[in-house]
Amino acid sequence: MIAKSVDRPAGLNPQKAPDSERAGRFRLASVAARLMFEPGRVEAGQKQERVCTCHRWRTVGTVQVRVDHARNKAIFGGLESCSNVWACPICSGTITEERRHELQQAIEAWAKQGGSVYLLTLTLPHVRADNLSGLLKVAAKTSQRFKQSKAWRSVMDQAGAVGTIRALECTWGSWHGWHPHFHILIFAKPDQLPAFEQLRAAWVAALLKTGAAGADQLNDITAHSFDVRGGDFAAEYVAKFGHEPSFKSKLEAQAMWGASREMVKGQSKVSHSMRGSTPFTLLVAAEKGDSQAAALFREFYWAFKGRRQLTWSPKLRARLGLDAEADDDEILERQANAPEFETVATLERDDWALVLRHRARYQVLLWAEREGAAGVQGVLLALRQMEQERPPDKGPPDEYQGTGEGFAEQRCADDDQSADALDGAARCASGGC
Ligand SMILES: [Zn+2]
């Protein structure tokens, strides 16, 4: 009876899951977990990267399915999360949603105080052969020098700036390789665009001084490495912050990157050279078997691990009446424990393993939102039926918990070089090897 509402097989087949941003996040999280999984660590008894176990491993005995009825939104409780805002499609969704909300609050608060917010975009020249870690080092050095310049201090003074928020972003393009860049929101007096335009020379000077650009590139960097826009653009940037066009599966990897996201509309030359994939579009390509995209994602992962996505200048939050900044872990924890979520179902270990084997995390949430506890039970019932009819031949790791349990099961996956080790682990766990 219940199973009919599960709309199987379409409703339960991840390949045919309804196209939504959240479905994409769960799918791509599995790809990221697979890419970062290192069989060698199993041998060494070491933990995997947290992105591999995020929203898979249980922190306590059971997994809760929790629903906020007012917003009709379901989440899991009792699971580990990796808090990796750069590389985890699931965690980054939650964290950037909160950060976006804060940015919007900041802009509104400043507008109420009669101020304006400007958007500065700073880029540096790069070529396909550049490695990302090296570029990031030069970018950080250049940014530091820029902010320590006399020009920066005097323009900030002149414009009545009370603070800045710096966002670090990165894309990759097949022509010019990695493209790390900064967007800086400046909270200042109205009508200060001409003042900020004076910073162009300071950014160019910083690029030359740190060796980020050579003297032969002077014309190019003067024209294209610096951009400043007024309030509407800042608001538009914030509205799009963290939104990932790549989750829409109908868009192909190379077409997903929108120039609008970079706020450099009108700079055709720059936006052409900047055109590329976001890290999550690399995951989309890797999922389709693109080994170059897979290698690039790994490079990105290690280069960005532990880096700050947003940097607020000291005292700005207080000036705008915002609370102290929560770190990424705190944001995730706050959501997981938010009182508006009611636990509608509790999944025991075996049921959770079943959900993971069939890559049905997304469907559990979807049906919890649609039908509450009955929806979750319906999914489990359908999964059990499916497994009886045809045991899964692939699936993510499910059985190993903590550092010890189940790691032995991964070992036999190493023998199967044709299948990825992560999927193999689940196959072993389900008795398939
Ligand atoms: Zn995560």
Question: What would you say this structure looks like, in words?
Answer:
The structure is a single chain. The chain folds into two domains: 179 residues, no CATH class; 232 residues. The protein starts with 20 loop residues before the first helix and ends with a helix. The longest helix is centred in the C-terminal third of the chain and has 29 residues. It is α+β, with helices and mostly antiparallel strands and 433 residues long. The protein is globular and about 70 Å long. The N terminus and C terminus are likely disordered. The strands form two sheets. A five-stranded antiparallel sheet has the order 6-3-5-4-7, sandwiched between helices. Strands 2-1-8 form a three-stranded antiparallel sheet. The relative contact order is 0.17. Helix 17 packs across helix 18. Bound molecules: zinc ion. Zinc ion (ZN) binds next to helix 4.
